[in-house]
């Protein structure tokens, strides 16, 4: 029936991980897990124009930019490892789903690269349908690499704790940054004194955009060059953000979008402006970004969509104009009711 047997990954020694999509959310977990299993992790290089072009050539036109970039990363690892690690993420429970591309990713990679003799290592995270949470999915994966149940449990604990520490450290670092801004008087004062304070801008974007130097860097780098303090919605405490999102919508299906919206509501009164950043043509973002624009008001919002085009002049012009508007407003140029 095509069902793989226990320990069918035991011979895999070098595991390739594309540095795209959910790697930017769970990368610490994955790398720690394979290191605890005694495997060598091979990461694809940082995103560049060549990887984007390769992924675009391998993908259908209707794929979103993030999926195309992932294909470029996956293809770049062919021949550099024994197998590619491509997990399937469906959901983490009720109202905690992922976009369908994350669930279909192993099949997409295996079929797209079928002529390149690629072996795909995978596991399924489906808390609702298969009743396989993260713990069960990755302990099962460890056993397929040859670990016994006790060893698999140890490996999972080490990996999950490393991920938790990394998330906590990131959230605490941003909280300290916010506290420092507040202590320095960001948000207080008036007129020229207020205008001299640095602008604080929150970037609301999936981690695979916000923290990819090539994709998100086309937005965050100009903001920083213009003197703005950049915060990231995905770096808020995830549980706090999720709870806050329930006040915005009880029916929103996508876990990452939920966290981003919740984080934005928590940061809204602490920032001067908001940048919504999406990859063309992301379905979930097209709905949630529109909801944000309509329902979360009181702060200027710049809504940006990036695609596979290499030119950034128009993008930088919009960012510069947005920063000028924020500075003018901060100096008292605009008054909102």
UniProtKB/TrEMBL annotation:
Residues 14-234 form the DUF2229 domain. Gene3D superfamilies: 3.40.50.11900. Pfam families: DUF2229. InterPro entries: CoA_activase_DUF2229 (IPR018709), Dehydratase_Activator_Redct (IPR051805). This is Acyl-CoA dehydratase activase-related protein. It comes from Gordonibacter faecis.
